[in-house]
Amino acid sequence: MTEDLRSRVAALWRMDAGGQTLALTSEGGLPSVIYWGARLPEAEDLAQLAASARHDLTGGMLDQLSPLTLTPESGRAFAGQPGLICAEADGTPLHALFRFDRAERQADSLTLISRAPGLTLTHRITAQATGVFTLQTVLEAARDIRVQWLAAPVLPAPQAADHMIDVHGRWVREFHLNHVAWTPGIRAREARTGRSGHEHPPYLILPETGCSNTQGAAFALHYAWSGGHRMLAEELPDGRRQVQFGAPLGAETAAGRRFETAELVAVYSDTGLNGIATAFQRDIRDRVVSWPNPARPRPVHYNCWEAIYFDHSLADLTQIADRAAALGAERFVLDDGWFGRRDDDTRSLGDWTVDRSKWPDGLQPLIAHVRSLGMTFGLWFEPEMVNPDSDLCRAHPDWVLGPLDQVTGRNQLVLDLGRAEVRDHLFDAVSAILSDHAIDYIKWDHNRLLPVVDTAQTHGAYDLFDRLRAAHPGVEIESCASGGGRIDAGILARTHRIWLSDCIDAEERLRMQHDAALFLPSCVTGSHVGAEHSHTTGRALPMAFRAWVAAQRHFGFEMDPRRISDADAAVLTEVTAWYKANRDWMMAGTILRLDSADPSVTAEMQLAADGGRFVVFAGQNAQSVQSLPRPLRLTGLDPAARYRITLRNAVDAPPQSRGPNALKAGPLTLTGRALMGQGILLPVAWPATMWVTEGERL
Ligand code: DGJ
Prior knowledge:
The protein is of the alpha+beta class. The strands form six sheets. Strands 4, 5, 6, 7, 8, 9, 11, 12, 14, 15, 18 and 19 form a twelve-stranded antiparallel β-sheet that branches. Helix 4 (314-327) runs parallel beside helix 5 (364-372). The longest helix has 23 residues, at 566-588. Bound molecules: (2R,3S,4R,5S)-2-(hydroxymethyl)piperidine-3,4,5-triol. Residues 305, 335-336, 380, 445, 447, 480, 482-483, 499, 502 line the site of (2R,3S,4R,5S)-2-(hydroxymethyl)piperidine-3,4,5-triol.
């Protein structure tokens, strides 16, 4: 018989992180959330809060409401998706009924332990100093069991909301926002490609009705795992809403006695989507990423991929390095093509020794030259992969993940990183190159979808990252997966930069960067100035636009710098100098998305941590419907303070800009109230113009 879930005296807990409060009760077998939202006053009575969260009942329902606990249980007649689906090792389904046992409270964390015969379920909630909550579920068993689905602690979703926002994308078109209506039933997303993925990156925003970039309430979740995920956002028949995140179904392939989810990062904002963006950006920058040298300014990159592809020669790369350094580059990255017999993408992945046919004297002459120009040196690897046409695959066909006759992706297979000997081999190979050369940066690529879904592969990859970082603590790593295929807080705990997209067409990038700013800070978001004609869209864009879009984030160049005109070189040199002069406060500041009244203008503000300065980037991405620019309202300023605003690049005004726009003529001084209320009026612009307006608090 089912116990009366209200029969025991309930324990109550409250946690605060930044501007949010999470309150929980043990009433109902397993603990559940009774409140998640804006930070409550200290005086809030938790018993009253718990009482206020109790629902009525009506016809067509059971005689007691099955609670929405941190792990909804299939055995309690819960009408929605359970948070745990498991079985005995022989496959017999298990419908455990847990009872809360005890809590362990530390200053910033709460561990809630519940038990069922032979099983222990632990929910861990931590209030991080960055203002987010991190939540994790651990399941332990006294005997081997199988887990098909284990959700991170399940949170209620807001009911004063008509839609949710999640993220989709594809190669060269990453980070698009989906606005999906809440309806009775389930919105399910599952990334089964073994990566966090272009298709379904593990992020979800739950805005309340009326939320915009700058105002209103929103909740958001991010699952910090790089091996794919499953997300369920469900409205139950009774109207309650729940959200679950975990590894893809069946990703725990082996029977075992301990299973844990990745951390779920949770944020509440009452300052619109920008409050979500502020918390996620701060959390990635100040907690998740561990910087080898936090004081080092984010260096201007030069990457040679779109300049030469696989066609490496010391003579060309020496000339390119000279030109890149003259333009202001500070780190030179040698991309794919330096190892094995890698003349194209059909072979040699796995053979991490320098190709002596291209580099008769090894990489040292190029590295020495790069360093003599004052730049550091970075190198491309794709450690988790192997080409069938490689010495490694010929020697160890058994190291391949999945069957040998599987379909290849970009002509390659995946190595089984669940195996210790594979990880040891890769550690030795990559570590030898790092030890023998002056390298301060790895571009770590991952260019194919996995043939199977298995958490062991992700754990193995993390282990390889961790060992290499421990052995080479001064080396920064970029996470690239055909562009933005592996961007999440799990990989960013081991890396320092993400390659947002293989598309460096500035028009595409402007939009992508805008949407990715909801989750990612400027300092980790790599952005490069490409060639005049984009290699992935064919579109031609002016240098000023290409350069300013790249300067919004961690800046670099990726074109043949020998082929740019003197006029373009002058523009690029100037924007590079601007980036260097402003990067320190920008990288430590916050990107705030502006609610542009003109859909042809994508606009953001970057605000310094002390609020003393800002820059507004307003990118004209198409011809506006109306003739004159609409006012652009700023945000995040002190209404009473006065700010001097200066248009940095009036020179980019088109010939048709012939009116008395004040910003073209010089600075204006206005209060925060005026800037946020009325907004600024920019000059008219051609498509592919980025207006850059600097602000300084007086
Ligand atoms: C895919 C990456 O996204 C590119 O930037 C480049 O590094 C190539 N791989 C190299 O093969």
